[in-house]
Amino acid sequence: MSTYAVVLPAAGRSTRFGETDRKKPFVDLAGRPVWSRALEPFLARPDVVQTVVCVSPYELAWFADEYGDLVERFRIDVVPGGEERFDTVALGLERIREEIDFVAVHDAARPLVTPELVDTVFRAAAETGAAIPGVPATSTLKRTNGDQIVETVDRSEIVLAQTPQVFGRDLLQRAYANRGTTSATDDAQLVERLGHPVRVVLGSPSNFKITTRDDLRIAESLLKPAEPPDAV
Question: Is the pLDDT of residue 16 over 50?
Answer without folding.
Answer: no
